[in-house]
Amino acid sequence: MKRVLTFSFIALMFLAGTLSGSEVEAAPQIEEIVDKANLAAYYAGDDGRSDVKMTITDGQGRTRNREFVMLRKDIKDGGEQMFYVYFEKPSDVRKMVYLVHKHIGRDDDRWMYLAKLDLVKRIAASDKRTSFVGSHFYYEDVSGRGVEEDRHELVEETDSHYVVKNTPKRPGEVEFSAYTVWIDKETFLPMKAEYLDKGGSKYREMEALKTEMIQGFPTVTKSQMRDLRSGGDTVSEFNNSKYNIGLEQDIFSERYLRRPPRVVRR
Amino acid sequence: MKGYSLMSFSIKHPKTVTAILVIFTLLLASLMVKVQVDTDPENMLREDEQVRIFHNQVKEEFNLNDFVVLGVVNEQHPDGIFNVESLTRVHELTQFVRNMHAEDDPAKRVVTRNMIAPGTVDAIEQAGLGQVSFDWLMKTPPANAEEVERIRQLAMNNPLLKGTLVSEDERAMGIYIPVSEKDFAAEVRIRLLDKIETYDKSNGDQFYITGLPVAEDTFGKEMFVQMAVSAPLAMLAIFLLMLIFFRQVKMIVSPMIVAMMSVLCAMGLLIGTGHTLHIMSSMIPIFLMPIAVVDSIHILSEFFDNYRTIGDRRKTLEHVMGHLFMPMLYTSLTSAAGFASLALTPIPPVQAFGIFVAIGIMLAWLFTIVFVPAYIMLLKEESLAGFGVSKTSSGGIHHGLSAFLKWTGAFTYRRAKFILIMTLAVLVAAGYGIGMIRVNDNPVNWFNEDHSIRVADRVLNSHFGGTYEAYLVLDSEVEELDGAGVVDWFGQGLDRLTDEGADQQVVDRAREILAGESGAGSTEMLLESLRTVWEEEMFEAEDAYYDSWGDVVNLLESFDSRSEVFKRPEVLEYLLGLEEHLVENSEVGKSNSVVDVVRKVYQELYEGNEEYYRIPDSIGGVAETLITFQNSHKPDDLWHFVTPDYRKANLWIQLREGDNQVMQEVIDTVDSYFAANPPPVTINHQWAGLTYINVAWQDKMVFGMRDAFLGSFVIVFLMMTVLFRSPVWGLLAMVPLSVTIAFIYGLIGFIGKDYDMPVAILSSLTLGLAVDFAIHFLERSRATYRRTGSWKAAVGEMFEEPARAISRNVIVIAVGFTPLLAAPLVPYQTVGIFLASIMAISGFATILILPSLLTVFESTVFRKIK
């Protein structure tokens, strides 16, 4: 299995409850920690649905909101998966859809459907570390950064956390020099991440603000991404999260961009 | 008379007096260690000035910084700037400045996230079929010609970048370096220059650095250096000239000491009272020095002329001080009044300048009457041997001057009417010239033509849309709706849904609900119940009706976002019209706004098809275009152009020239556009940006100076009337200075020199200095007339020592300030030329016009004196 670690915190709600830290006796190997964290953060259940509310606050304290429904279906745990994001607010972009086919070992396929313009756009692979609809989260945070893209190192083990430092294998492709993740020993949820810029100073910070147990899956229901340079941040809240709801795979196709499935309704 | 007894005291106790003065001066001068330097011309405006508050608000609200502009230009390479080597340097320099901050203060830094450079801006590009991509324009330096070509195409096809980041002729690339504080700009420039110094420029790369913060900050810093060079040089020149006139080093040291003490005390007081050392106040020494030595020169000159005949220094001093006391007091008072009147201007640094020059003048007067006599008394009597002219045996310069003055005196008596007619002619011509005065300023022009900032300004503005920034902020007003208005609004919204193809059954049902709820108490309650009921209908709707119900529920959001004016296509079209009008009809080189973002992204959404380089037809289309843009690396860039609530928009305007006049023209063009083309919704507009701030303080300066000048004119006239106890004589005293001022400002109008900050400030100096000679001349004329009984007899005597004293003063100060002409800063040259002209013209005016007037109007003016 490919080693995948991500800190994609919109997707943190999809958790693997089976990976309870209490079952782990001795300190696991770094690969194991990273894999479990990846599963906990992105692969809970076989599929899932959540209402997401993003509150984007800029350095001046001005806020904007995004509300969307997020659907996810795993093809294989820790492997291929699909995301369908249906926008409800702001109202002038209602019905906008963001679709991802996540691949391992090659670039993801991503689409954006602009409903008012009735345009389907493929999103280029190079855009992974650009802003997700104006928030402080990146696209890569939504669907996950490939674990194989970084080198991992267990730098510290505290009473409650594994502290893992990740260094990109191809530093030219990313804006950070390294990032450190605090992984909960119990749930294997990444609880905190700090990004260092090329000069080595911390400029970006994620924190899981609230976790809940949903259908037996530990789930991050509130997380925050802070941009330390601008002083802005984005808080994502996940409501009405459900797992294993039996999503059809064909929902995650171009066909459903123009005609959203009924399941996105509340 | 108190002052007179003070003078006698110092003649009697020279040592005590000297000791007291030295201690006094040292005490005040020691306050200077508290100095705080302020080189920001923005402080010409009070901190709570509306213009400034707004400027700062705009900078914060739209997250704007003042830019240092670094231009890399290549005129030599066939592909201009687009070659591997040049772009590699651009990349290197970008990296070099990225995280730059002041060593001692990390808050003074380059604001990296707002930098505009090929490595820090996103290119919007087509990435194969149906794909739009945001990628850094130049993440790493290009390795080969293909990569260079990609960068070239992306940059040239992006209207947001063309004309700003890269010049239209493809020869220049600009790196816009935002600085958190303006006073970090000069340091950024210096560090960049050091870095650039290490480059081999044989490939034709040239580097230029400009931008208003650089000009202003560098000017401030160079000014202080210049101050330290020019003031002593002027001192030296004055010293040498006095040496020629009086030939006794020991004697002429005293005016130097008086000038030094006055300057030290005035500056000590300025700083000690908590004022910053601003560009304005740094000029205090150079203004104070000539005024401070004037009185001493009068004393020395008369002492020089009388010492031989009287023989005893104490008697000579008493004689000289006896008839110089009143004129010296009054010349000092009038000069001080002229400067003190600057306290009436609304400009804090000018107020401080005026007040402390005035204080300095009065201190100089005090030092002159107390110290100069004490100093002469402290000299050994023998060392004065050989001092002064014997009336029979002087030659050289003294002989020439005396002979010339004698001839002049006779001429004014014989040709009085001719002189007066000529004066009138000069006045008429001057009046015409004054009418031609052009009020204008530009901090970049404070540097010499060949200063590297000035050169950079010329070169870069010939390549780019302009390095001068102004911000036009548009603020919309949305009308509040009452209960019935809200119901109407939703009614119209539902009509629109029908037009847009929503299901009629759904719309009708929604309308029914609206009618049912329209009785709700308040707007909030109405909205709340509409939301509850409509959403319920939506959730329960059949698949076929779900979308239409969604559209209905959406109306609630649209109602809330009614105020998002700058998303509306018709408003954006209006903005576009305004921008196009500005570029066509004024010096605006380029303007950047949300319109450019929308059009560019819209075009790229349609495969780069040029037909789509326009504003989408619907508000939803605009919204989707904008949210697409926010998928970039720097989504916040949008908030430079609109506020997140879309109620305010900012037009970033680039001007190729920073002259205040140019800015004023743009302001007028915008005003008339708004007047002639009413916007679709109420939009208020207001300006910000450094180029605009300069216009704002210039206006205050010009009118403030004018008022202060007129005020002090009246005050000086009243003082003259009191001094001479006659309004007629008071009026006479005003003649030379009026002619001088008219002449100088007329000349400025004729030669087309801009009426700028230095010129404005110098008007107060004119008044203070030009009246001096008239006071001396008139005071002596009356005394002489009393003794001789006729003007014809008096005129000969007047053109002996009194005229000589005036002439010496003219020459000493006029020539003394010529070193300023060599200064690399234009305001210094202006001060130098002005001082020389003021002295020369007011001197001439005094010894030509006053005697002519006295000749012609002898019977009237001398009636009472007889």
Description:
The complex is a heterodimer of chains A (266) and B (866). Chain A has 266 residues and is mostly beta strands. Chain A has three helices and 13 strands. Chain A has one domain (29-264): Lipoprotein localisation LolA/LolB/LppX (outer membrane lipoprotein receptor (LolB), chain A). A 13-stranded antiparallel β-sheet of chain A has the order 6-5-4-3-2-1-13-12-11-10-9-8-7, with helices on one face. The longest helix of chain A has 13 residues, at 30-42. Chain A is globular, with a radius of gyration of 17 Å. The longest helix of chain B has 35 residues, at 212-246. With 866 residues, chain B is α+β, with helices and mostly antiparallel strands. Chain B is elongated, with a radius of gyration of 36 Å. Chains A and B meet through strand 6 of A and strand 4, helix 18 and helix 21 of B. Strand 6 of chain A pairs parallel with strand 4 (131-136) of chain B, so a sheet runs across the interface.
Summarize the structure.
The complex is a heterodimer of chains A (266) and B (866). By secondary structure, chain A is mainly β.
Strand and helix layout:
The complex is a heterodimer of chains A (266) and B (866).
Chain A: H1 30-42, E1 47-57, E2 63-74, E3 81-89, E4 97-102, E5 109-114, E6 119-123, H2 139-143, E7 150-157, E8 161-168, E9 176-184, E10 190-197, E11 202-214, E12 217-227, E13 232-243, H3 255-258
Antiparallel strand pairs in A: 1-2, 1-13, 2-3, 3-4, 4-5, 5-6, 7-8, 8-9, 9-10, 10-11, 11-12, 12-13
Chain B: H1 2-12, H2 14-30, E1 37-38, H3 50-61, E2 66-74, H4 84-98, E3 122-126, E4 131-136, H5 145-156, E5 172-179, H6 185-197, E6 205-210, H7 212-246, H8 249-272, E7 277-278, H9 284-310, H10 313-340, H11 348-378, H12 396-414, H13 416-435, H14 452-463, E8 468-476, H15 483-499, H16 504-517, H17 523-540, H18 543-560, H19 569-585, E9 588-592, H20 594-605, H21 619-629, E10 648-655, H22 660-676, E11 683-688, H23 690-724, H24 727-751, H25 757-788, H26 791-798, H27 801-816, H28 826-856, H29 858-861
Parallel strand pairs in B: 1-7
Antiparallel strand pairs in B: 2-5, 2-6, 3-4, 8-10, 8-11, 9-10
Helix pairs in contact in B: 1-2, 1-10, 1-11, 2-8, 2-11, 6-7, 7-8, 7-9, 7-27, 8-9, 8-11, 9-10, 9-11, 9-27, 10-11, 10-23, 10-25, 12-26, 12-28, 13-24, 13-28, 15-16, 15-18, 16-17, 17-18, 19-22, 20-21, 22-23, 23-24, 23-25, 24-25, 24-28, 25-26, 25-28, 27-28
